[in-house]
Amino acid sequence: LLLAALLWAPWRVLDGAPLAELSGDQDFQLFLHKNLEFTRKIKGDVAALRRVVCDTFQLCKEEELLLVRQDLGIAQPPLEQCHGRTFQAEACFSQIRAGLRTYHGSLAAVRELLPSHAGLVETLQLDAANLSSNIQQQMEDLGLATVTYPAEERGPLPAFSSRFHHQVGGFFILANFQRFLETAYRALRHLTRL
């Protein structure tokens, strides 16, 4: 028994360690599992809107639109801190929050493009804001440094030079958002396994 206790003791110390060692923290695990499901739900809604863009405008394949994409200047928030080799949970959470804010604003262009699906786009915007808020709250609960962004200013929507560019812009906003969510999902799942 003494040998078992000595062998187990070093692992017990990790329960109070920084974020990477929080695998035993039940509140943190609950946060991760709930937000994994939430991220999966948002990804599903983005995929549904991509199908609408495909069906409505026959814009379905990125490789066919790459030349047009270069002219559009569609924002693609970075998530390099959420990838395997460079993974840093605190920085990853901050990048996810910043990206969710970017997509919250960009989705207004999609809402304008698909007025008959405005309800789903608005739900996506609300979900992006809620996921960002969940991450902010968890960072605060863990005592991690948080970056507070200034109140979002409602700037003009991206200036698309034509209806076609607006359609392609909407396509790439959704395609980028879906990839962003896939990376965020993998990062959250990675934390459940630490």
List keywords for this structure.
194 residues, mainly alpha, Growth Hormone, Chain: A, 6 helices, 67% helix
Structural overview:
The protein is mainly α and 194 residues long. The chain has one domain: Growth Hormone, Chain: A. It has six helices and no strands. The protein is elongated, with a radius of gyration of 20 Å. The protein starts with a helix and ends with a helix.
Q: In CATH terms, what is the fold-level topology?
A: Growth Hormone, Chain: A
Low-confidence stretches: 1-20, 149-155
Please identify, by name, the CATH architecture. Answer: Up-down Bundle
CATH class, named Mainly Alpha
User: Helical residue percent?
Assistant: 55-70%
Tally of structural domains: 1
Tally of helical segments:
6
What's this model, at a glance?
This protein is mainly α.
Write the layout of secondary structure elements.
Elements (H helix, E strand, L loop, with lengths): L1 H12 L12 H32 L8 H7 L16 H25 L4 H24 L21 H30 L2
Helix pairs in contact: 2-5, 2-6, 4-5, 4-6
